[in-house]
Amino acid sequence: MTTKTVISKDLANKKIHVTREFAAPVEKVWKAWTESSILDKWWAPKPWRAETKILDFKEGGLWLYSMNGPNGESSWCRVDFRAIKPQQSFATTARFCDEEGNADSSFPAMHWVIAFHATEAGAKVEVEIAFDDEADMEKIIAMGFEAGFSMGLGNLDELLQLNAI
């Protein structure tokens, strides 16, 4: 099993694909992606931290959170849940926003599908992020998405190894 985050870009289809395996059952990994008390422990790349304001994990619900930096900076994001298949997958649209959840139109919408698969050694998570146009995808990549998301998934791996979930 490889616990390395694998990221590939499909420019023609305006998509980013991310795959990561974990030495933990799907149930635990699912819980880590869907409960705010756990998400807040791993979602942000260190030394940043995530802080959930609202998490209503249901179709039509939302996750409103901030990413807080070590020097007092913060960035807000709103994630709208479009479809949920428990223990299998969920689809969202994520946007940067203000602390009330109002979208910041200077940043693109990101359409996520997160799928969870059981493996012999634990679980594999496959993420597909689609963008409305190639420039939107390039903007998110230029902001450091690959390194930041890889670090967050590494944080999750650490939590699972510590059996902290």
Which features does this protein show?
165 residues, alpha+beta, Alpha-D-Glucose-1,6-Bisphosphate, Chain A, domain 4, 8-stranded antiparallel beta sheet, 4 helices, 25% helix, globular
Structure in words:
- With 165 residues, the protein is α+β, with helices and mostly antiparallel strands.
- The protein has a single domain, classed as Alpha-D-Glucose-1,6-Bisphosphate, Chain A, domain 4.
- The protein is 25% helix and 41% strand.
- The protein has an 8-stranded antiparallel sheet with strand order 1-2-8-7-6-5-4-3.
- A hairpin with a 3-residue loop joins strand 5 and strand 6.
- It is globular.
- The model has no long low-confidence stretch (mean pLDDT 95).
Topology:
Layout lengths: L5 E5 L4 E8 L3 H9 L1 H7 L6 E7 L6 E7 L5 E12 L3 E9 L12 E10 L2 E10 L2 H9 L2 H17 L4
Antiparallel strand pairs: 1-2, 2-8, 3-4, 4-5, 5-6, 6-7, 7-8
Q: State the end-to-end distance.
A: 20 Å
Number-wise, the strands total 8
SS-derived structural category: alpha+beta
Assign the CATH topology: Alpha-D-Glucose-1,6-Bisphosphate, Chain A, domain 4
